[in-house]
Amino acid sequence: MPVSQTLVSLAQEMDHTGQQLLLRWDPELVRRFTALSQCLQGLAEQAGAEPLQRANEELAAMLRNWSKRRHGNDDVLALRQHLSLVTQLASLPLPSFTPPGVGTVQQSHRLFLLVPPAQLPAPALLEQLACFGYVLDVFDNAQTLQQALFLHEPGALIVYDEFDTDSVAPLAAMPACPLLFTSPRRDFAARLQAVRAGGQGFLGWPLSVRELLDTLTLPLTPDRRNPLRVLLVEDMSSLAGLYAAVLNRHGMVTEEITRPSQTLEAIERFRPDLILMDMYMPECDGQALARIIRQQRLMDGIPIIFLTMEKRPHMQLDALALGVDGYLTKPVSSEELVVTVSTRASRYRQLRSYISTDSLTGLLNHSHLFARLEYEFARAQRERRPLSMVMLDLDHFKQVNDSYGHQAGDEVLVSLSRFLRERLRRSDLIGRYGGEEFAIVLPGMGAEQATRLLDDLRDAFARLEQVSPRGRFRQTFSAGLCSSDGVWDVVALVQRADSMLYQAKAAGRNCVVSWSPPRE
Ligand SMILES: Nc1nc2c(ncn2[C@@H]2O[C@H](COP(=O)(O)OP(=O)(O)OP(=O)(O)O)[C@@H](O)[C@H]2O)c(=O)[nH]1
Predict the structure, then answer these.
(1) Are 281 and 257 within one domain?
(2) What ipTM, to 2 d.p.?
(3) Which of 110, 220, 270, 486 has the fewest C-beta atoms lying within 10 Å of its C-beta?
(4) Pocket of ligand 1, candidates 391, 392, 398: which has the most ligand atoms within 8 Å of its Cβ, to mutate?
(5) Is residue 395 part of a domain?
(6) Catalytic residue among 162, 283, 436, 465
């Protein structure tokens, strides 16, 4: 299982806050540290990272007692070592949850399918799924399925149903994993029955790999490696801390600000999925602040929820007219807070991803890739870190469309996108540049390392067998690469990577060419 970026960034923020505390003891910093530590503890618990949990608990205990007594150099050293230990443990790979006997497949990549014996899926489906690292276990009766569910928890359970009776035959026990239905029927009545039976997704039958993978990548369950981010604007820091603790306990990451004037800067830096704000604050009230936020084009869509004691309907309606998304009337119960915040924030995140991604592959679209590239490039220059840009193009792709059909061509595009997503880091940017051309941005990676990585990817992808109804084939790609070293703007970076791609094609395709400065 890859390293959890969330745990790493939480641990890094804790380390930063802890170092600040050693310089200046400040109750606000202590509270922030405690909230981060609670959040890390919750996530580490869910991930089963026991050594990290223990180290984090010890660190929290050290800090709890810190202000109560005097400290020598040894104490400071011990605290620093503990901070660094937590950071190191957070960057270790998370333990696999694979139950005994299931082999080495990631549990989330093991799927159970319940179908009648007459409908067993074609072996090609299992093979195609295997190309993306998924294993499909097929059961032709509910009893053996229940036994298997008792022993293992798959990433999802898919149940075939023709919905020809009034209601779906209930499962002996509802699985803990997401439940999907698949059916030759796609009408409203069938979908209604599926939803009533607890279905979280609905797939056509016969199963299509693309539809299945698309559904599995939707947030059916909370994404614990990329938790929802909530910005709290509340002048009473104790109250904000209370809300933050509740949201943190439910896996969300929070940032608290007490002054409305800090809001715009905090939104840019923290990139929240939702803003929870007090309606009455001394510097500026919530309504004026909401208006300011809504006037910024890039911040316009972020959901805003007011926290208020206000019960007068006309005041609430005025705020709704401003584009505020809802109200929570104080005192707010933990349950109401968590449900209101998490549903709205995840919906916003999903809608945002539709706008910024290409509909076929789910990768960043051209304009968003470039917006993000500009940001990463500027950051790399500022931090004096390398960054590599890759332009990648499928070879002789026209022949694939001509020989196997446009649908098979589409499947190859999806296959490459998933392949890149599985193999690259979460911090890398992958975009569909257009047609059969892709762009990849590798922050922190210089030309040599990036060339090696791309060449490994090229080799592995070329070995994958593409399966289509008209036959099997293999697909290669060519790539051009340029690192930011000595390059002063994004346009030059892209042009150089592009001209290297051209050279890779000219050199016979199925290869990676990296830009190097011309000899003097
Ligand atoms: N199936 C499918 N095909 C696409 C899509 N976008 C572009 N194409 C096809 O990609 C092919 C690109 O063809 P060419 O530009 O001639 O390049 P090529 O055949 O890949 O050859 P080289 O790049 O020189 O190796 C065209 O046939 C396009 O129709 C898409 O979204 N789906």
Answers:
(1) yes
(2) 0.97
(3) 486
(4) 398
(5) yes
(6) 436
